[in-house]
Design goal:
With 340 residues, the chain is an alpha/beta fold. The chain folds into two domains: 197 residues, Quinone Oxidoreductase, Chain A, domain 1 (Alpha-Beta Complex), CATH 3.90.180.10; 136 residues, Rossmann fold. Helix 5 packs across helix 6 and helix 8 runs parallel beside helix 9. The chain is globular. It binds zinc ion (2 copies). One zinc ion binds next to helix 2.
Length: 340
């Protein structure tokens, strides 16, 4: 099968890999319908994380081709969406709603789903079937549920977004935009998107943003305070993962407010503990337990209540993955879908 390989930072090839097959009785092998490039794939691309002939990709939708003997919830021919973390669905952590911290958790990034097929371990706990074979127009949105929508949704949930609340969103990448959509769906009264890019501001407004703040850092936080009568937002979504963005989130939150942080932090990123301490806010985040939200999100997409697929502003065939990486790296695209 063909698969995207990052030979070294910045070097993307589409090469032949051995077809995946069932190894464990709990596995499924799926044929990808579409896959995509994630903001987190840019870290190795830029050399911030290592890359050495690495298979790439962790977001996926597709049709089940084969299942192991003990798989019961999906069967060949089913259309499935899965989270970017493999989870068993049965351990105490999964049952408590945190499948991304499952005791058997495995990042799909290590499997690589920018490929024609993928072996998905623990299929029963990881994959969710759609109500039927989806119309082509639903594929981008279902693919978004696999990571960015689920992650934005978790961030809003962790930030305790709800009716009557003012929400500020730090980060205008795909996850930040999905946080805006989630906040709108959860009934937020006011949603302030922090963005400097006209195209992203427009999409944020389409997804429910009521205000746009272009300032960043301490100035950005001061602007949020100004817009909220000096108090700060009730709920803040942090979707970047740097010290600056985290402090912007902390200082944009009112005392006693909540931050949902889902921006992937990297080794060496630090936070001044005194600033966190004196802010007096709730902090909850990490790799999003996307699998928890998938049944609800798939239904909303199926019923066309939400259209998260609009975050894909560039679609390319898998063979042109290198151009997709370059477009995201150069910020010519918010998020790139790869078709098979
Ligand atoms: Zn991702
Ligand atoms: Zn588990």
């Amino acid at each position: 099968m063909r698969a995207v390989i990052m030979d070294a930072p910045g070097e993307i090839t589409v090469a032949e890999r051995e077809d995946p097959r069932i190894v464990e009785p709990t596995d499924a092998v799926i044929r990808l319908t579409a896959t995509c490039i994630c903001g987190s794939d840019l870290w190795p691309y830029r050399g911030v994380e290592p890359a050495d002939h690495s298979p790439m990709g962790h977001e996926y939708v597709g049709v089940v081709e084969e299942v192991g003997a003990s798989v019961t919830t999906v069967k060949p021919g089913d259309f499935v969406v899965g989270s970017f973390v493999i989870s068993c669905g049965k351990c105490e952590i999964c049952v408590s709603g945190y499948p991304s911290k499952c005791i058997h958790a495995e990042f799909v990034a290590g499997i690589g789903t920018q490929s024609e097929k993928a072996r998905i371990p623990l299929a029963d706990g990881t994959l969710v079937t759609t109500p039927g074979l989806p119309d082509d127009s639903l594929i981008p949105s279902l693919l978004a549920a696999s990571d960015v929508l689920g992650t934005g949704w978790f961030a809003a949930d962790a930030a305790q977004v709800g009716p009557g609340k003012t929400v500020a969103v730090v980060g205008d990448g795909a996850v930040g935009l999905m946080g805006v959509l989630a906040a709108q769906q959860m009934g937020a009264e006011r949603i302030i998107a922090m963005s400097r890019h006209a195209d992203r501001q427009a999409l944020a407004r389409e997804y429910g943003a009521t205000d746009i703040v272009t300032e960043r850092g301490a100035e950005g936080a001061a602007r949020i305070k100004e817009l909220t009568g000096g108090l700060g937002a009730h709920s803040v979504i942090e979707a970047v993962g740097t010290e600056e963005s985290m402090l912007q989130a902390i200082h944009s939150t009112r005392g006693g407010g909540h931050i949902g942080f889902v921006g992937v932090a990297h080794e060496g990123v630090q936070l001044p503990l005194d600033q966190l301490f004196f802010a007096g806010v709730h902090l909850h985040g990490g790799p999003a337990p996307v699998r928890r939200y998938l049944p609800e999100l798939i239904q909303k997409i199926w019923d066309r209540e939400i259209d998260p697929g609009k975050v894909f502003d560039l679609t390319l065939p898998l063979d042109q993955a290198a151009e997709g990486y370059a477009a995201m790296h150069e910020r010519r695209a918010i998020k790139v879908m790869l078709t098979l």
